[in-house]
Specification:
- This protein is of the alpha/beta class and 289 residues long.
- The protein has two domains: 2-177, NAD(P)-binding Rossmann-like Domain (Rossmann fold, 3-Layer(aba) Sandwich); 189-273, N-(1-d-carboxylethyl)-l-norvaline Dehydrogenase, domain 2 (Orthogonal Bundle).
- 45% of the residues lie in helices and 13% in strands.
- The protein is built from eleven helices and eight strands.
- Strands 3-2-1-4-5-6-7-8 form an eight-stranded mixed β-sheet, with helices on both faces.
- Strand 7 (147-152), helix 6 (160-170) and strand 8 form a beta-alpha-beta unit.
- The chain is globular and about 55 Å long.
- The structure holds 1,4-dihydronicotinamide adenine dinucleotide.
- The site of 1,4-dihydronicotinamide adenine dinucleotide has 28 residues, from helix 1, helix 4 and helix 10.
Amino acid sequence: MIVGIIGSGAMGAGIAQVVATAGHTVRLLDQNTQALQRAGHSIQGSLTKLAEKGKLTAEAATAIFGRLQLTEDIHSFSDCELVLEAIVEDLPVKQQLFREVELLVSDTCILASNTSSLSIASIAAACQKPERFIGIHFFNPAPLMQLVEVIPAVQTRAGLAEEVRGLVQSWGKLPVLTKDTPGFIVNRVARPFYGEAIRVLEEGIADMATIDWAMTELGGFRMGPFALMDFIGHDVNYRVTESVFTSFFYDPRYKPSFTQKRLFEAGYYGRKSGRGFYSYADSATPPQP
Ligand code: NAI
């Protein structure tokens, strides 16, 4: 199968690695040359590490990388059988992208979004053939996280969700079918987790490091809420919170926090920008509040 992935950031690069590892030819596109180059280095680095750990042979790592084509030319997507986007979490931008993609691909090409929170129906609505549209939502980092949410929209044709579920399973992942509602399963449950952690901080109940420590040591989470938000990126995470809040008709359970909004506005996106809740100026030392 030839799979086109649009957006080569944290998610697109990880998904490209998963799909190429599963044996498919992958075309990975970004509008930003540097992002594309970073993705190439990061995938190569990740495959090299897996080979060093003995989880892959060096030949397999080379073959996987060989199935990956980095491109800035959307026309190279004309023979794709599946196109999955992982670009900015912005509805009009995603809609416009699929309008353009649909002009290039065949009628049978499946179109999919990795959106965390936007309605799949609203992205599909921009397409001429919305019945071939579906949500395929990976978690970060995609090569490591097993769960993938598969989200049919009201327009999605009967049978496509099952087809995609089988495909995702063949990629070594654990697909879960979910309805097209804001945040689906995981991001909906996660909103109050982040929101409450920020409120605990704002109310002076404990500092960030203590909250993170408590949630990892005692709560059994792999990362505390502040470290996790910094890992996801506040550009992504704040937009998701705002989108879930507005999509639930301003239900106060999902209300965003000004603390996070200010980080977003300042460009303090977390690990990716060197500063978020914590500072990552020197990556050799643990994050400092
Ligand atoms: P990112 O900011 O790391 O990467 C996005 C990439 O898309 C950038 O390289 C950017 O240059 C590119 N891009 C933006 N507009 C484009 C366009 N019109 N055409 C081509 N390339 C374009 O973002 P990230 O974190 O990878 O998120 C991408 C999507 O995945 C978002 O919808 C987000 O909600 C979703 N997502 C994010 C997760 C996370 O933990 N960061 C987890 C699961 C889903």
